[in-house]
User: Which sequence fits this backbone?
């Protein structure tokens, strides 16, 4: 049986743990993948925001000074991202005593591999929880214009103050099961182009399954497909993508092409009982029922990460990164803790490039 010196195993397990852990499958993160990532070494993150208008030059009389232009002033917006820290006690693992309580000079390579694999599974679970929280941030932003933190009472952390015209609720004869869905989609495309200054000829429409069913079963949409020698739409069977969304084809809306996609992914929201204790979980969709969201193909989104609380000694620089991993031994409590810390926030730099439709009553 192949063995590893116990001292060497204890020195190697942390690096081995990170290597195995990084190879684990990640949870679906389609919404988060739409933005760029930025890391900061400070507690806060900031972005520059400047509104650019499509002004047109007017003619002036020859010999005059001309039109004086005042450049738009950028505003700096600073955010303190929410802080996440998830940990578990490694002493509860079945192979811990063999790694750290062994009296011999070596352990079998199989036991070492089992410990690393078991610890990696637990660390993967912890990061998955944080990643789902970041995915929920983007779901909140594109649907409500704010970020809500789950707790005993759901609180709004950041309100990005979306325009009311960008969040539309259809009622009566205007809902997608009655009216032509391309009417409200065209209004949304025009908003993204004229107010959001989104360029390009293609937009994305992310929706739930109820909205998709209402669209494809709508009489006006079906009649468009019956016109010979016209290719206004190209609807197809769903094609599931690796990051969780399903592609359903595209539809012509005025001067734009709208890609249709659903995101049938869920997270377990905690249910709180008396005293703030968690009594259970409710499977909750990231995209709310009866909702469709229009976005540019390449939205101006940023996932910003700030520094997490950490001890900084003389001459040391604060560590930055999306995730920081810790390994602590608490002699007083008799615990050996592995933890993961992260402080990230979803920032839509172009907030007017989001258009949300409540499609059904």
Assistant:
């Amino acid at each position: 049986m192949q063995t590893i010196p116990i001292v060497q195993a204890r020195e190697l397990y942390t690096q081995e743990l990170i290597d195995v852990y990084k190879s684990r499958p990640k949870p679906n993160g389609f919404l988060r993948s739409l933005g760029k990532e930025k890391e900061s070494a400070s507690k806060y993150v900031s972005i520059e925001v400047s509104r650019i208008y499509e002004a047109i030059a007017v003619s002036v009389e020859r010999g005059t000074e001309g039109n004086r232009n005042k450049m738009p002033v950028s505003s700096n917006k600073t955010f303190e991202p929410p802080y996440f820290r998830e940990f578990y006690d490694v002493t509860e693992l079945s192979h811990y005593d063999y790694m750290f309580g062994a009296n011999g000079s070596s352990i079998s390579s199989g036991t070492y591999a089992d410990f690393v694999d078991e610890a990696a599974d637990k660390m993967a679970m912890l990061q998955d929880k944080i990643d789902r929280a970041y995915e929920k941030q983007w779901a909140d932003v594109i649907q409500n214009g704010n970020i809500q933190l789950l707790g005993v009472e759901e609180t709004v952390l950041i309100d990005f103050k979306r325009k009311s015209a960008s969040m539309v609720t259809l009622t009566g004869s205007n809902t997608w099961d009655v009216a032509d869905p391309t009417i409200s989609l065209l209004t949304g495309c025009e908003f993204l182009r004229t107010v959001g200054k989104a360029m390009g000829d293609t937009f994305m429409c992310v929706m739930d399954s109820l909205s998709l069913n209402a669209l494809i079963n709508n009489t006006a949409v079906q009649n468009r497909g019956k016109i010979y020698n016209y290719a206004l739409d190209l609807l197809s069977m769903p094609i599931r993508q690796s990051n969780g969304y399903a592609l359903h084809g595209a539809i012509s809306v005025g001067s734009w092409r709208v890609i249709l996609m659903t995101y049938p992914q869920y997270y377990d929201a905690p249910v709180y009982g008396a005293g703030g204790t968690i009594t259970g979980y409710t499977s909750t969709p990231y995209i709310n029922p009866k909702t469709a969201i229009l976005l540019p193909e390449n939205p101006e989104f940023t996932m910003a990460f700030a520094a997490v609380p950490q001890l900084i000694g003389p001459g040391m620089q604060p560590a930055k990164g999306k995730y920081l991993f810790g390994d602590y031994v608490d002699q007083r409590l008799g615990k050996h803790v592995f933890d993961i810390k992260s402080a990230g926030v979803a920032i839509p730099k172009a907030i007017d490039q989001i258009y949300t439709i409540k499609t059904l009553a």
Notes: DSSP finds seven helices and 21 strands in the chain. Helices lie at 6-22, 30-33, 96-100, 109-144, 181-194, 209-216, 219-224.
